[in-house]
Design goal:
Layout: E1 2-6, E2 13-21, E3 24-29, E4 35-39, E5 46-55, E6 58-67, E7 71-73, E8 77-82, E9 85-96, E10 99-101, E11 103-105, E12 111-116, E13 119-127, E14 132-140, E15 144-146, E16 150-153, E17 156-165, E18 170-171, E19 177-179, E20 183-190
Parallel strand pairs: 5-12, 13-20
Antiparallel strand pairs: 1-2, 2-3, 3-4, 5-6, 7-11, 8-9, 9-10, 9-12, 13-14, 15-19, 16-17, 17-18, 17-20
């Protein structure tokens, strides 16, 4: 087997033949025939990270398997294992020790806080001129919602006027669209 590494004798990166491969590799430079030892890099081990998965009003303790050197960030999409079930989730919080951070390596993470994004409940507020009617629609996380679209939920027909996103902005312009798992609330008026 041959590998391309820096040779301490030549001072350049060159092809080396692997002579022995145990705890340390013994390699010989094909340019100058200098034999030297190489430390093997440790392969990162998989780590099961404790994960709180929120689904609507309920939460459950699950786990996500990551490689120890993998870096995890808020808004990452991962797969959580909850017993025999698996859920597509979005990371909403990361605890490293007793602190909340925006990103961390898997081996440093104490708890991941997530929410299910493959099947979500979208909250809808419809105004009919006198009162506001709250509605809930269970839908796929990738279902599209468009400002100006006419919908019917629980027998009530309405036109979407605004989409409030989880990360802050309010979408008001006709034709703007997003997917269900990004929505905090849909606003509309009854037809």
């Amino acid at each position: 087997m041959f590998i391309s590494i820096h040779c301490p004798q030549c001072g350049e990166k060159s092809e080396h033949e692997v002579v022995a491969d145990s705890r340390e590799r013994l390699v010989r430079c094909t340019t100058c025939n200098h034999v030297h030892r190489l430390k093997k890099e440790k392969a990162s081990e998989p780590v099961m990270v404790k994960t709180i998965v929120s689904r609507g009003d309920s939460s459950m303790v699950c786990g996500i398997e990551l490689m120890g050197d993998d870096e995890c960030s808020i808004d990452d999409h991962l797969v959580a294992e909850c017993g025999d079930e698996a859920f597509g989730v979005e990371v909403t919080g990361i605890e490293r020790g007793e602190r909340r951070v925006k990103r961390a390596r898997a081996q440093e993470i104490t708890t991941l806080w997530t929410r299910v994004i493959e099947q979500v409940i979208v909250k809808i507020s419809i105004h009919d001129g006198r009162k506001t009617i709250p509605l809930y629609r269970d839908c796929d996380g990738e279902d599209p919602f468009i400002v100006g679209e006419i919908c019917t939920v629980q027998g009530k027909r309405f036109k979407i006027s605004q989409l409030k996103l989880r990360d802050g902005p309010l979408m008001r312009k006709e034709g703007w669209k997003t997917v269900a798992h990004r929505i905090k609330r849909v606003y509309g008026y009854r037809l």
